[in-house]
UniProtKB/TrEMBL annotation:
Record-listed ATP binding positions: K240
Gene this chain is encoded by: gluQRS
Class of the enzyme per the UniProt entry, highest EC level: ligase
Keywords linked to the UniProt accession: Aminoacyl-tRNA synthetase, ATP-binding, Ligase, Metal-binding, Nucleotide-binding, Protein biosynthesis, Zinc
Stored Gene3D superfamilies: HUPs
Name this polypeptide is given: Glutamyl-Q tRNA(Asp) synthetase
This enzyme's EC code(s): 6.1.1.-
Chain positions of motif 'HIGH' region: 9-19
Cofactor: Zn(2+)
Note on cofactor: Binds 1 zinc ion per subunit.
UniProt binding sites for L-glutamate: R6, F7, A8, P9, S10, E42, Y181, R199
Binding residues for Zn(2+): C98, C100, Y124, C128
Short sequence motif 'KMSKS' region: positions: 237-241
Glutamyl/glutaminyl-tRNA synthetase class Ib catalytic domain location: 4-245
Amino acid sequence: MRYRGRFAPSPTGPLHAGSLVAALASWLDARAHGGDWLVRIEDVDRPRCVPGADLHILAQLAACGLRPDEDPWWQSRREESHERALQRLVAAGLAYPCGCSRKDIEEALRAQGQERPRHGELVYPGTCRAGLHGKPARAWRFRVPPGVVRWTDRRLGAQAQDVAVEVGDFVLKRADGLFAYQLAVVVDDADQGITHVVRGEDLADNTPRQLLLQQALRLPRPAYLHTPLVRGANGEKLSKQNGAAALELREPAAMLEQAGRVLGLRVPASAGVGEWLAQAVDAWRATIPA
């Protein structure tokens, strides 16, 4: 099976140093395997998207020599596919309507003595699993089965998560009618034929939810590799939310060299982007397990 990888940025602003690391890693892995590298604009969360950011991101990638092998996809144009997947889950009894607001969830957890935030999220207590109890439906949730989900990350090694305990039944379609990231990414990866997912390690704990959805929808499971993060002076992940500066691309080869160092690649900056990328592919192939 031919390797197919992807970089899937959210157009909430321009690329920064952290997102370049993820883009470069996914491109290098595809080239090291002699495969295809795709770009998918993950604009499913439309209220957070910045007009024009998608085209700016594509221009930034091109300036760094990172050009997709096929035309980019926009996730917001794929709602029909996402809806079909949701209806398959509903028909199988694996998705149900939920009438809970965030306040409802917080109060239910307090009543159980379980005020346990998880990275800002609350573990869903299963209030609507058996019915809406007279409340109007707000969202759709996935009925998480009991048991630990296990997988092996190509960089992080053996991983495990009890999704039912640590996350609970998670949202597939939000109260505002938009599809949640978890469902959209699984459907789109399958429809694009993605065989390998390379992304930042902050997304590693999303993987077991996606594995459950792949299994429920009988979709192929890609191989996963989660890359090191670029962190700010406060130790937190560099992100648009904490003020990460847009990439300064007057010297793209130098920016690539910095990103390569985060990935453990010792490829010195060169006069040209193409020359640096060619050396980096060889370094990646020698450093990263297939």
